[in-house]
Specification:
The chain is α/β, with parallel strands linked by helices. Helices cover 36% and strands 17% of the residues. The chain has 13 helices and 15 strands. A 7-stranded mixed β-sheet has the order 4-10-9-8-7-5-6, with helices on both faces. A hairpin with a 4-residue loop joins strand 2 and strand 3. The protein is globular.
């Protein structure tokens, strides 16, 4: 038995089977490359589902983490610490907002946004107690807590986890007419959407959809909550995916790349009117906004302020889609969707499903992952070189026989 096989077997024997990882055991990583325990290198075209937008072991992010590790890592929010004010101020400025509520994981941030919307609905809008509704999109992915899977349409995420949390209305993603019919100004407090649905296969809404959502929610005094956990912080060629339609939501939900691939960091960012509804003791998290998270998050904000990563995602993203587009219609690929350095590729059944293609790419030194059966996602670190990207896409063409 090889070291890889032994470690995979040990993991299977002693961990709950809530994931089905590819049979590779990573030992080190740098930039857009990872190396396994046997010394074989792999090109990372997944980037931790956008958590590694700035690459593995980004020197600036590691330096910020090391410096903070020498000072203080955790205080809890029982006390102030000297990185917290800067982090909240600078993240609010990056978003064009006023207040920040830091958490840790993306699911925590979405849960926080839901609590925010409900409390705003009762305290500010005047919705009768217990009647607040939030409109969400089919095929969404916002996390895996019991509340979040309550409005999931993915049977694997939802089955056997009831009873489910009420208060959510599902509509088709990208359908403004359905949204219009679902938003009742009397009891709807928010519309919660991913500007681009990542887990569903990088589904981009029709042109004008986000602008329509913004106009409808504003007209009916309903919050527009944009879950930019995967789509935000440079991935699509702009800081936020909403910017492609010139839209500013009422609430941003951020995570993944905010922690720079170093620590879990998430946040809800909004106006004083919205986030100002909280009072001490009503919501919190022991690790939320801790000194180490704030130090890394501040460096992430500094990287984004250069604009270099957004430009790189736009330029390499345009190249990515130029290379992928000719694959459609040739019998190997049924569809390609995406924006910026992010693509969902629907594999024709004649070439196998997404898992089979991911495994064949693994054998060629390229790491991707399937979603929803036939689809693979391509989302490399934004630091990837054009040459490495082309090499990885060449392996995909070879695997597909295209």
């Amino acid at each position: 038995m090889t070291s890889t096989e032994a470690l995979v077997a040990a993991a299977e024997a002693h961990s709950a089977h809530n994931y089905q990882p590819l049979p590779v055991v990573v030992a080190t990583a740098d930039g857009a490359w990872m190396t396994d325990v046997a010394g074989r290198r792999y090109l990372d075209l997944l980037a931790g589902y956008s958590a590694l937008n700035f690459g593995h072991r980004n020197p600036r992010l590691l330096a910020a983490a090391r410096a903070q590790l020498e000072r203080v890592t955790l205080t809890s929010r029982a006390f102030h610490h000297d990185r917290f004010a800067d982090f909240c101020t600078q993240l609010a400025e990056l978003c064009g907002m006023e207040l920040v509520l830091p958490m840790n994981t993306g699911a925590e941030a979405v849960e926080t946004a839901i609590k925010t919307a409900r409390k705003w609905g009762y305290r500010v809008k005047g919705v009768p107690d217990g009647r607040a509704r939030i409109v969400v999109a089919e095929q969404n992915f916002h996390g895996r807590t019991t509340t979040l899977v309550s409005f999931s349409t993915d049977p694997e995420a939802r089955a056997d986890f009831g009873p489910y949390t009420p208060g959510f209305t599902l509509v088709p993603f990208g359908d403004l007419a359905a949204l219009d019919a679902a938003v009742d100004p009397a009891d709807t407090v928010a519309v919660l959407l991913e500007p681009i649905q990542g887990e569903a296969g990088v589904r981009v809404p029709p042109p004008g959809y986000l602008l329509g959502v913004r106009e409808l929610t504003r007209a009916r005094n309903v919050l527009f909550i944009a879950d930019e956990i995967q789509s935000g912080l440079g991935r699509t060629g702009t800081t936020f995916a909403c910017e492609h339609e010139g839209v500013v939501p009422d609430v941003y939900v951020l995570g993944k790349a905010l922690g720079g691939g170093v620590v879990p960091v998430s946040a809800v960012v909004s106006s004083r009117e919205v986030l100002g509804v909280f009072r001490p003791g009503e919501h919190g998290s022991t690790f939320g906004g801790n000194p180490l998270a704030c130090a890394v998050g501040l460096e992430v904000i500094a990287l984004l302020r250069t604009g270099a990563y957004q430009r790189r995602a736009a330029e390499l993203g345009a190249h990515l889609h130029r290379v992928l587009a000719p694959l459609v219609g040739g019998g190997a690929v049924d569809a390609v969707r995406g924006r910026g350095l992010w693509a969902g590729v629907d594999i024709n059944p004649s070439r196998g499903d997404g898992r089979a293609v991911s495994e064949r790419l693994l054998a060629r030194g390229v790491l991707v992952k399937e979603t929803h059966g036939p689809t693979i996602r391509i989302a490399p670190p934004l630091v990837i070189s054009k040459e490495d990207l082309d090499w990885g896409l060449g392996q995909l063409r070879a695997v597909l026989g295209a």
